[in-house]
Design goal:
With 274 residues, the protein is an alpha+beta fold. The protein has 3 domains: 2-101, Helix Hairpins (Orthogonal Bundle), CATH 1.10.287.1260; 120-168, Roll (SH3 type barrels); 174-272, Alpha-Beta Plaits (2-Layer Sandwich), CATH 3.30.70.100. 53% of the residues lie in helices and 19% in strands. Strands 4-3-2-1-5 form a 5-stranded antiparallel beta sheet. It has a 3-stranded antiparallel beta sheet with strand order 10-6-11, covered by helices on one side. A 3-stranded antiparallel beta sheet has the order 7-9-8, covered by helices on one side. The longest helix is centred in the first third of the chain and has 48 residues, at 2-49.
Length: 274
């Protein structure tokens, strides 16, 4: 009976000690995670006060948080009596195996670093990449979040962005609107040019420099096609495009200028200023 009592006493002591280690490890994890989040937010706020790119700010905030979280987990494990050196070695071996299985994720991480270094776009820019168009909202460690014009959120793996052609429509402050208008062969071409020039001059959003280009592009099967190329501020692009199409149609009707039916499609080509 005495040996049984001793065993029970030892078991009770071990349980209390192990339970205390578990509670301490949990406390380290909870507090450490809280501190990691606080430090991550502090780094984010500190970078936001400067002139850092919002894309870089969010990326560094995530990197600091997950980096600190790894140390917190190791500290919690060490508190439970597990040798961290062996854990690190085991994690290294496991990490190598996992790395082979997660080559795509590692590629996305490396691509995220490239996006930060090369900076082909910034948060708030409207881009076309990996077959998707939208406004850049966030750049994470493994992916980039875009908001489409119809307010959909699209998550694109970073490796797909860096592996595709990226068109940045917001990189330049000015853009050119390319339009084609077809008129009848019986219309006075000088009059058509004068009407187009007058419509352009009435829109204050069209920039005087570079001057708008108006030229006879081609003699089509059923229409004479004029190309119209005004320059505008990037933020005015779509508004000017829509307004010009409507204004041209109304003025052509008012001036008796014929638009052949069926109307030739309007070709829109987006360019960046050289």
């Amino acid at each position: 009976m005495e040996s049984v009592d001793q065993l029970l006493a030892q078991a009770q002591v071990l349980t209390m000690e192990f339970g205390l280690k578990i509670l301490t490890a949990l406390a380290i994890f909870v507090v450490g995670k809280w501190l990691a989040r606080k430090l991550s937010r502090a780094v984010t706020k500190l970078m936001e006060k400067g002139t850092s790119d919002p894309m870089l700010v969010r990326f560094m905030g995530n990197l600091v948080y997950f980096g600190l979280l790894i140390f917190v987990v190791l500290a919690a494990i060490a508190q439970m009596g597990v040798q961290t050196t062996s854990v690190v070695a085991a994690l290294g071996a496991a990490g190598f195996a996992v790395g082979l299985a997660l080559q795509g994720s590692l590629g996305n991480f490396a691509a995220g670093i490239l996006l930060l270094v090369l900076r082909p776009f910034r948060v708030g820019h409207f881009i076309d990449g990996a077959g998707v168009s939208g406004t850049v909202e966030e750049v994470h460690i493994f992916s980039t979040l875009l908001r489409t014009p119809d307010n959909k959120s699209i998550v694109i793996p970073n490796s797909q962005l860096t592996g595709s052609i990226i068109t940045n429509f917001s990189a330049k402050s000015e853009r050119r609107v390319d339009l084609t208008y077809g008129v009848s062969y019986s219309d006075d071409l000088d009059k058509v040019r004068t009407v187009i020039t007058d419509v352009l001059s009435q829109d204050q959003r069209i920039l005087p420099d570079p001057a708008p280009v108006i030229g006879l592009m081609s003699l089509g099967d059923s229409s004479v096609n004029f190309v119209v190329r005004p320059w505008v501020k990037s933020e005015d692009y779509w508004a000017v495009l829509f307004d010009l199409n409507e204004a041209m149609k109304k003025r052509f009707d008012a001036e008796g200028i014929s638009i052949p039916f069926p109307q030739r499609d309007v070709h829109i080509i987006e360019h960046k200023k050289d």
